Amino acid sequence: MFNKEKKDYIISLYDFTAEAEVALNHATLIAGQTGNEVKLLHIINSETKYKLKKIDSDEETVFHALKEVAERNALETKVPTSYHAFEGSIFTSISDYTAELGAVLIVLGTPGVKGMQHIVGAHSMRVILSAPVPVIVVQKTKANYHGYKKIVIPVDYSSLGKNKIDNAIAIAKYFKSEVVLFKSGETDGYLSEVVKNNLTHAKFLLKVDNIPNTLVEENMYEGSFSRQIIELAVEHNADLLVISSEHKSDSMKDLFFGLHEVDIINNEAEIAVMCVNPIEERDDEE
Questions:
Q1: Nearest Cα to 128, choosing from 171, 94, 154, 159?
Q2: For the sheet containing 37-44, what is the strand order?
Q3: I need a surface site. Which of 45, 109, 256, 264 has the fewest CB within 10 A?
Q4: Of 88, 110, 138, at which residue does a domain stop?
Q5: Do 20 and 90 contact (CB within 8 A), yes or no?
Q6: What are the pLDDT digits (tens) for 252-266?
Q7: What is the pTM of this model?
Q8: Same-domain status, 159 and 267
Q9: What's the rounded Cα separation, in Å, for the pair 58 and 62?
C-alpha cells in the first residue's frame, strides 16, 4: 500500500464542506506519518457549475480556493499538499485520476446519518466500488492526534476480501497499532471451518509483521453483526474499522450493499472506516 522508497499521493476529495475538511485532516495525518503527499481533488460537475453561477463566478474561483486550502494545510501541518480540479463525473473521474496519478489511498467525507441514504446510495458507494485503491470514509470527527492506534477488522466466511488484512497491516505498521479481530459466529459446520481458516490466515499475517492483536468472537444472540462490530470498536476506543467493499461477495456479512456495511460506515461513533475492494484469488493452476 505504501512504498518507503518513494513519495506517493493520498487523495483527499474536497468539495468545500465541513466533511471535506475532516477528510483532509485524516489524509494529512496519514501522509505525515507515511511520508507521502496530500492531493486535494475536486471534480467540477453540474453541481459545481450551478453553485458558481449562483455567485456569478467561474471555474477559476475553484482553483483559487483549492490553492488557498492547500497552502494553508501545508503551512499549518508541514505536510506537502497540492491540488487538482477538472471537469468530469465523480463516478468515473475519481477512479481514473487515482490510477493515472498512482495514488495509494483516497479519503472522502460524508455528512453522516441524515444524508447517508443519498450519499452512500448515489455517490460514495460508486466511488468506493470503482476505486483502484482503498478508500477511507470519515464523517465529522477529526483524527486523534495519535493516529490509528486501534484497528478493528471483522473476519467472516467470505472467500474474498483477504487483502483487507494486508491494507490494515500497512496502516498498523506506521502507527504502531493494535488490531482487534472480530470473528463471525456460524452454526453451519462448513462455514465455521471457513471462518476458522480465514482467521488463521489473518493471524499469520499479523504475526509475520509483529502486529499485536486480540480476538473477540460474535455473540449470535446479542444483536446484529454490524451492531456488535460498532459496539466493540467503541469499547476498545478504535480509531479505524476495516471492511471489504465488494458487493459480489459470497458472504452476506461482507455485502457492501447490505445493511451491515452501511451501518458500519454510518456508525454513530463516527469512527473512520477503510473500505477495501477485494482481489479475487486465482488458483495456482490458472
A1: 94
A2: 81-87, 37-44, 9-13, 105-109, 135-138, 272-276, 240-244, 150-155, 178-183, 213-217
A3: 45
A4: 138
A5: no
A6: 343 444 557 778 888
A7: 0.90
A8: yes
A9: 8
